[in-house]
Amino acid sequence: MSARASIGSVTDITSLRERRRLATAAEIEAAALELFACGGSEHTTVDDIAAAAGVSPRTFFRYFPTKEDAVLGVKRDFYAAVSERIPPGAIGFDDLAGATAEALESFSATFLHRMVRVRCLGEHDANLRHRALLLDAEQCRQRQRHLGGDMHARLLVETLAVALNTALDDWAIRRHHGEDADLAGVFRATCAQQRALFQLG
User: Fold this and answer.
1) Which of 90, 127, 145, 167 has the CB geometry, 3.0–4.6 Å to 187, for a possible disulfide?
2) Are 103 and 78 in contact (CB under 8 A)?
3) Which positions does the record tag as DNA-binding (predicted)?
4) Which domains does the chain have, with CATH numbers?
């Protein structure tokens, strides 16, 4: 076997393992979301989620530290997608808003539906809401450090978080009433209103 063929085989194996890893994570997330929707975090155990996903509890903990984190995988994916799109040296509101809008445009309808479901579940589940707030705070701190870690960075990141949460709520309400609303469009409109109100740029 040539060196090139050997490298190709290793790459194929790595890709297969990564696909399996992602598939397993998705199955665990889907099982956790359905169980939380039925019984909430109080009445859902890691064993329940693992059984529904067809994995062992030990395998579950290789992917997620807590049962709440399994449900919140969609939020982590969202934050990762935004981070990938923030341009080097970004320091302005428009830079972050643009990266967020691009991330929202890249997601499928299924992904966005999961985001809304998780958000709605958190409104009625104190444990999930607490874990989600910790995740949001962690991501805000990371974003602030990326932007320099000063007061300007903190205000910038938290101002954008307000715009995103407002847009998510508005979009969910519109969809609930049958309107064919586009989340990225709603977010951009929200940012425009926020920019006009506070003269951001």
Assistant:
1) 167
2) yes
3) 45-64
4) 1-64 (1.10.10.60), 72-201 (1.10.357.10)
- The angle at the Cα of 165, spanning 76 to 132, to the nearest 5 degrees, equals 40
* Angle at which helices 151-176 and 109-124 cross, to 10°: 100
Half-sphere exposure of 36 (CA within 13 A, CB side): 28
pLDDT tens, the chain, 201 aa long: 444 444 444 456 568 888 899 899 999 999 999 999 999 999 999 999 999 999 999 999 999 999 999 999 999 999 899 888 887 776 788 888 999 999 999 999 888 888 888 988 988 899 999 999 999 899 888 888 888 888 888 888 889 999 998 998 898 888 878 888 899 999 999 999 988 887 765
